[in-house]
Amino acid sequence: MILRRLVLSATWNSKSQPLSASALRLVSSSSDRYTASQRYSGDAKLARLKHKDWLAPNEVLKIFENVKDPSFLMPAYQHYSKRKDYQPTEPLYALLINKFGQAKMFDEIEELMRNVKLEKRCRFSEEFFYNLMRIYGNLAGRINRAIEILFGMPDFGCWPSVKSFNFVLNLLVSAKLFDEIHKIFVSAPRLGVEIDGCCLNILIKGLCESGNLEAALQVLDEFPKQKSRPNVMTFSPLIRGFCNKGKFEEAFKLLERMEKERIEPDTITFNILISGLRKKGRVEEGIELLERMRVKGCQPNPGTYQEVLYGLLDKKRNLEAKEMMSQMISWGMRPSFVSYKKMVLGLCETKSVEEMDWVLRQMVNHGFVPKTGMWWKVLRCVVMRNIDSKADLDRIIDCQETLG
């Protein structure tokens, strides 16, 4: 408070220079810590930390678990660390880190970890560091800090397993930091990590997403060397990569390779191929793949039928598309708003009023509201088809009024 009064007195003087940014941060930090400490001193849940009673580690955990305001935690921990019965344990540190992470108080986590490093009074499990990396990577968005934690684990007498190693690799792939993936991957021996199939799958996914398909294929050949076996998650990114580049011959070769190696392609694998073919206008091949799925006992999902439906609509095959849509609805599936819109506009072009009436009603039943522009096109279609066909026009108007 004395520091704060001195600053206020200085700022009141018009001749004084304005405070620097660093000075303002110092004042703010001092004030915030004082306030937190002051509030903590009157908190009933933390009052036991001021008693002289000996506190067992489990009792301390319960005290900190019951704290609702995370700003109380650091002052309370600092007070506890000065007690004679202070016993730092992994559960206590994990509890504090989780609470700070949920409150996005990452500076407090850094301060706590500095204490951990200085004290060196307890051993930590891999799960502790895994959770810390998860907080830094997923909540804080500090992937570099997560990497530092991974490589710093041996300093605490804890060596990472492939689980922690793969987690960091996944973070890099998700963040599209492809240049860093190889650096981490080749560091596996240094960390004592034995590469497994999951690790190779992550590497293949990263290489495919970066467009380096040739390198990804080379990694595929590493599975036997690592005494591991590829699975469907190995091939799906490769097939997607070749489909995105329009190299369907290579994609289908990979599908054949899967079958030769007795790796059953799943729905996602087929959906990748059907979607890729649809985007290139190869609708018939997509329909053939749909039939192939059924024959092989691989159950299509709504996404499969939706892709085929899009393909039919792109080719203006509206009657086949209507039949596909009807089947989807009968199976409890919900066609997308975009497919309904494409269908209506396509039927407008062919002036198929009766089919359009059915599509509009299904669209409304599924909770989609056609916009004004679509209604005008529908009405124009009806009028142009037969200006004397009042029954058709009334039917469309009734459907619009149903929407309110």
Give a summary of the structure in a few sentences.
PPR repeats lie at residues 196-230, 231-265, 266-300, 301-335, 336-370. This protein has 404 residues and is an all-alpha fold. Helices cover 68% and strands 0% of the residues.
Structural features, described:
This protein is mostly helical. It is 68% helix and 0% strand. It contains 22 helices and no strands. Mean pLDDT is 85; it is low at 1-34.
Number of strands: 0
Which stretches of 5+ consecutive residues score pLDDT under 50? 1-34
The number of distinct helices, counting runs of at least 4 residues, comes to 22
Structural class: mainly alpha
Largest sheet: none
Order of helices and strands: HHHHHHHHHHHHHHHHHHHHHH
Percent helix, as a range, is 55-70%
Instruction: Report the mean per-residue pLDDT as an integer.
Output: 85
User: How far apart are the termini?
Assistant: 64 Å
Strand content: under 5%
Radius of gyration: 32 Å
Which shape, going by the Cα principal axes?
Answer: flat
What's the layout of helices and strands?
Elements: H1 2-12, H2 21-41, H3 57-65, H4 73-80, H5 90-102, H6 106-119, H7 126-139, H8 143-152, H9 162-174, H10 178-185, H11 197-209, H12 213-220, H13 232-244, H14 248-260, H15 267-279, H16 283-296, H17 302-314, H18 318-330, H19 337-350, H20 353-365, H21 372-385, H22 390-402
Organism: Eutrema salsugineum (Saltwater cress)
Keywords: Repeat
PPR repeats: 196-230, 231-265, 266-300, 301-335, 336-370
